[in-house]
């Protein structure tokens, strides 16, 4: 099976030369999702709401590929301030039912569009 590009209007369009997600066989690679509201293209300033929006964007992309949050096996979280770690964790945890994927969280100097958080995911469909 060749790779399949996954795209949905229920998540923000890519802001560069990349796809929202790429599926290769039963593995889905979701690009880093900024906390942009897909309808307004705006971003809340609150880091907790940013994390929630990034996860909602991932959820929408997974749905477009026929999956759910339960299919996620790994996430990567990029934050501009590790002092926001607890708030991001609380928002992130709301999307899982106690069966958490593997994860890495790293602090970065900056993110596109001034975001405070960006989240990517790998899922097995």
Structure description:
The protein is α+β, with helices and mostly antiparallel strands. Helices cover 22% and strands 29% of the residues. The chain is built from two helices and six strands. α1 (47-64) packs parallel to α2.
State the secondary-structure class: alpha+beta
Rg (CA only): 14 Å
Helix tally?
Answer: 2
Roughly what fraction of the amino acids lie in strands? 25-35%
What string, H for helix and E for strand, traces the elements in order?
Answer: EEEHEHEE
CATH class: Alpha Beta
Mean pLDDT reading: 97
Strand order of the largest sheet: 1-2-3-6-4-5
Low-confidence stretches: none
In total, the number of strands is 6
CATH topology-level name = 60s Ribosomal Protein L30, Chain: A
Main beta sheet, described?
Answer: 6 strands, mixed
How many angstroms does the end-to-end distance come to? 14 Å
| CATH architecture identity | 2-Layer Sandwich
Q: Going by CATH, what is the homologous superfamily?
A: RutC-like
Number of domains in the coordinates?
Answer: 1
Helical amount among residues, as a percent range?
A: 10-25%
Q: Which outline best applies?
A: globular
């Amino acid at each position: 099976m060749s790779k399949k590009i996954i795209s949905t209007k229920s998540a923000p369009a890519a802001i560069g030369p990349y796809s929202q997600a790429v599926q290769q066989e039963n593995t889905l690679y979701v690009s880093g999702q900024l906390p942009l509201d897909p309808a307004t293209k705006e971003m809340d300033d609150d880091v907790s709401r940013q994390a929630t929006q990034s996860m909602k964007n991932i959820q929408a992309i997974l749905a477009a590929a026929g999956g759910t949050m339960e299919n996620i096996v790994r996430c990567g979280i990029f934050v501009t301030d590790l002092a926001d770690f607890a708030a991001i964790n609380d928002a992130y945890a709301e999307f899982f039912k106690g069966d958490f994927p593997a994860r890495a969280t790293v602090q970065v100097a900056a993110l596109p569009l001034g975001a405070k958080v960006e989240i990517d995911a790998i899922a097995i469909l």
